[in-house]
Amino acid sequence: MTRTIKIFDTTLRDGEQSPGATLNRNEKILIAKQLERLNVDIVEAGFPIASDDDFKAVNEIAKTITKPIVCGLARCKKEDIDCVAKAIEPAKKSRIHVFLATSPIHMKYKLKMEPSQVIVEAEKWVRYAKQFTNDVEFSSEDAGRSEPEFLHKVLEKAIDAGATTLNIPDTVGYTQPQEFGCLIKGIIENVPNYDESITISAHCHDDLGLSVANSLAAVMNGANQVEGTINGIGERAGNTSLEELIMNLHAREEFFNATTSINLKEIYNTSMMVSNLTSLMVQANKAIVGKNAFAHESGIHQHGILAKREVYEFINPTTIGKETELIIGKHSGKAAVKDFLEKKGFELSETELERITKKIKDLADKQKTVFNEDILAIAGNIKGRLSDEEIFVKLEDLKIISGKNVEPEAKVVLLVDGIKKEGVSKGVGPVDAMAKAIQNAIGEEFKLKNYNLKAITGGTDALADVVIEVEDKNSNIFSAQALDEDITMASTKALIKGLNKAFAYKKIYKKSNKVEL
Description:
- It is a single chain.
- The chain is α/β, with parallel strands linked by helices and 517 residues long.
- The protein has 17 helices and 18 strands.
- It has 3 domains: 3-278, TIM Barrel (Alpha-Beta Barrel); 295-383, no CATH class; 388-512, 2-Layer Sandwich (Double Stranded RNA Binding Domain).
- A hairpin with a 4-residue loop joins strand 17 (464-472) and strand 18 (477-484).
- It is elongated and about 100 Å long.
């Protein structure tokens, strides 16, 4: 029979202990409501004794959410436990979580207690907490470095005193998966008063990058609750990343013979909310919720995804509220470019597709990111390109001289109906000099009327998009648009394209023997 693993979320307590991640009361309530939508089993709302605001946040959360158990943390001290009891009093379902260290190094240097004293204190304060709620969780801090026989004695006394959940923390992220799994199994087999009514919980830290692996090892060895945080935030290297833990159990349910009650579609929303409110960015390559987790740029991968998504995605991203992304960039192939543009309404010939794909790769070599707007602009520019029969003006060469205290000067070489023409001019800027040089080369028959420049996506490496209007001597207007990474080249291309439209119109006019344009 498949076991259901309880999910204990400590984002609002352990997660908030990440440097720089302090949340105010309203932000904590927002996250708590989202955790309820996510359908976690327990929300550790905070450490009420820490501050007045923390107390009020826990108390407000206890009033606000109804489905999860609302839990508060306390040291094994009367004032801590009293404070938690008062804070969680309004909760429909409540839990008091008390903790006491059990490793030799913690007992000697932090608690300054003998092992025998720790056993007495653990039993005393679990029993005290039990008078406020039937649901008491006891944590043996630094269990990962505790002596197993001593740990078993402490846990036995905690059960005697009324603890319903035994939490086994790898507080400093020291243990290895096999080692931590054996620790859990040893507790189940060697604590004499343990039975199936007791919940065994795993709380692992990520100092060696093993928190999720250790938590899964705990599940495989009998743990039926896992504690962690959204996005794996927490002290030092953080905690067990709940989204990774949950999706391991979901994707490999048959392997673990275990599942959760989590509303999977809310995973990504929850991750984004926690990231935004804590200002802790999710790294792009983070499993499950990272920006690149379901993104594909390699042409080989994109081809596989388009053929059948499962070729490279055994988890459907829609399960967690995300979508597959085919990133068009340096490593993309024609298949992904074609798929993207066809969805945007473009019908492309093979030649056009090759030109667009090459232009995208060229742009990706120059700027790190190719945005969707860049791709659409490139496609529109190439689709609007004149045919060979319509090209009367070709740019052979362009030289620009510009600098501090130097008036910009342009020299241009054109082929106009096969005849080589040159023009030289100065201007108020490189673009103005270029336009005047072209004007000099072709004569006064046409002139640049309007000029408009914009960046496609913003940033210093954005594509320049230039739209111009060319006017002939009979006041006919011809519009043209061109793109380039260089503003002057984009302007030159647009002007040449406009001139070609004007020359094409002139040819049509001559053939039709019209008197006026």
